[in-house]
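Format notes (please read before filing issues)

Several people have asked whether sequences and structure tokens are stored in separate files. They are not. Every record keeps both together, in the order shown below: the sequence lines, then the token lines. Line labels are part of the format and must not be stripped during preprocessing.
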Amino acid sequence: MKNLLVSLILLTSVLGYTRAQNETTTVPAQNVIVSVPSEEAQIKTSTACDFVPVTHWSLGIKGGTNYFRVNPVGMKRADLFHLMAGATLEYTFNPLVGLGLEYEYNPYGHSYQLNSTQTGNLEGLTHDVLMYGSVNLANLLLPYRTNFWSKMNIYGDAGVGVGFYQFKLTDANQNLIIDSRNYGDGVPETMMAKLGLNLEFNVSKSIALGGEVQYRYYDRANLGGYEMSKGNSEALSATIGLRLKFGANGDKQHARNISMCEYYPKQAPVIVNKIVKDNTIETINRLNALEIENDSINKRNQRLSDEMKAIKSLSNKPATVIVQNNDALTDKIQKLENDLKELSAKNKGVVNASFDNIEFELGSAKLTSNSYSTLDRIAEVLVRNPGWAKLNVSGHTDSSGSAKFNQKLSKNRANSVKIYLLEKNVPATSISVSGYGEDKPIASNNTNEGRQKNRRVEFQISK
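Then the structure lines:
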């Protein structure tokens, strides 16, 4: 098996590795030259994005110019361009999609010449109201955006609605030929649809500047007073605008400001690519080291399996043990409230509290449902006793896994607790987070009970 693996490594190195630096060594016993390359290892680590709470509503205002295709056609192309304005109100569900309501004021009109003898003037406008959906193409194509692209968004919009239009057609002597308001209820309407492309640059968390081009199709062939010879009336528009994003302050970002990675954070894997060449003693030693590393991984997996069995066994605990655990939690919550009252009375000092029953999914920063009641009670105590100024939430893990992974995991777990407390009205500006990984154990990591105690969340509260 080793010979086969060595052969595969040699073949891969010949095809893909052309920059190795070789050393030449003489083996006296056989009087042959063996090429021993220097080892090259490439380690790629991808940092997981931190989850941030988001807001969703935004208001946009815009202005620019439009170009209508109606009949009768204009005498000069420049007469077909008109200033227009509009506004949007949008709810952005996540960094990828949103749903909005749009209004546009679109005037149109021009001087025309129907034939060699008939000339005149067209005046018209539409009030367009429609529902649209938007897709952030930047997040669709680049879910891990950084630097300039972290501030630039490209949206594709599509929607349908109603255009309330009116027009007046006069001849060269200003005599009325047709006035749409003389028909029906005076304000006729038409179904319409739009397609748009919008570029936005985030100036700040709550303000963005943008530019947009739109195509509009009206289900009406006579917006100019005469039937179109082919198709229906259409319009193009180009605008610039300003978007205000509500609630984007403090720790909160707007859903239009962040990437998909930040909205759906995942712990990124560590990928190690090792490149070796030639069938040498060093190569064999490296392979032996890989086998030892695999044995270590297998032992870690076995330890995780034992922990899962221990977790499942909790459901078989007697009711008296569960009652005792609830009583212990109640005592901790009561002590926390008493300490906060004493802190408020003294106007200085520090309160420390530790909870090992704030639980997370295995290897993840996602809170389990069993943790909600504990965090609800902690939040109630913090809100009910406002005489404190600062709260630091620190996460701790056991020694399973690498130290680097555990440090990152502990901070992400502390951040999840912070977000939960924010949703329960604990002031955002008062909370900070820390992650200590496996560095501060309070029990042995050699037993399930000890590892359970080390997987904890601690609160340090001060004036």
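For reference, the curators noted about this record: The chain has three domains: 2-45+278-299, 54-263, 318-462. The helical segments are 2-16, 137-141, 260-263, 281-313, 319-346, 372-384, 403-423, 448-454.
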